[in-house]
């Protein structure tokens, strides 16, 4: 590694999975990452989160596999199948659960528990981290690159600034000069995570969902609604997520305490089965959240004009959950940028332009597909006969080109060629200059006679 690459100070805003991964990968490659986070420490909040091998292999590479082993042990690792049901509680299909077939790099479980594992590894590595430090200003001039902390006015300088500051990204406006562009997607999520008591386990519906020697993963789909229920940890933990049509005004806040009466209303409208009502009854109301799904229009660039700063993760491509790969794409961003910074030998603008060209089309296609996948789920009358006729449609959108992908090898293999194109000034749109996405979602499309999405679509125009 070139000496001046080792000296790079990398200011990273946001200690979610994107920011933590970027900090860890930069630290492992000899740079000096500086992580800045508004919250007090590792997040204990959240419900379900999944990583598949395109991101999981990055975690597996750390500490001789120790981090991956910890994530596996903490999650839903003893399920055998993911079972799909319609609103009448009729089973539509049953697919192997990835961890049940020992697929390396696949992790699913409580978001907070998984975040703490990654945070603890960053702490173990001695990464410089500033918590309780909310960024109020980004700056990126020819002379200085960094952030100013609210309240104290403290200035943190670096050679490069990576804004992993989420869907509410301040960097989008201050670094990229973009207006606020959040759009209500027309949908929201009720979500919950709670520990099961012995009394809860006596309920017949919950007893059927829990097993001491096997985790349970189930998915229900109906018009304008779909949901998951997971139970794991020897039947002690339960989480559920319910995505539903919603037209609430989200200008002030995106996340609210959820009310059981509201969830019941949506369950009744969608005619979801009794198991959902019973699980809702057992859920402590203070463990429920009503989270409004906000869509972000795709960006034309992720880089500041001075090209010493970049937005990444949800700040660059805010996926709807139906992509089933949003967190994974953030990890791909983080692992890729570290390689580009290392290989650039201190030339930050070169590194960031190559990073963008490696990641842009792939993340864009997966980002955009989250809408079409949601419509496939919500706008069709699912029956066993329809699933049999269209076996590739009612699936998690985890196609081989998405999952079986090594983002680090991809960056290593393509860096030199893209560097030559950047240095030579090759012209074209960002889509033309970037690597191909690697695939598409055509196999999930329904035939015209079966596809009701166009006639039934009720989403808010984008």
Automatic annotation (TrEMBL):
Family annotation (Pfam families): FAD_binding_3
TM ranges: none
MF-aspect GO terms: FAD binding; monooxygenase activity
InterPro entries (UniProt xref): FAD-bd, FAD-dep_Monooxygenase_BioMet, FAD/NAD-bd_sf
Organism encoding this protein: Cylindrodendrum hubeiense
Family (UniProt): Belongs to the paxM FAD-dependent monooxygenase family.
Alphabetical keyword list: FAD, Flavoprotein, Monooxygenase, Oxidoreductase
Residue ranges of coiled coil: none
Domain FAD-binding residues, every copy: 8-341
Protein name per the record: FAD-binding domain-containing protein
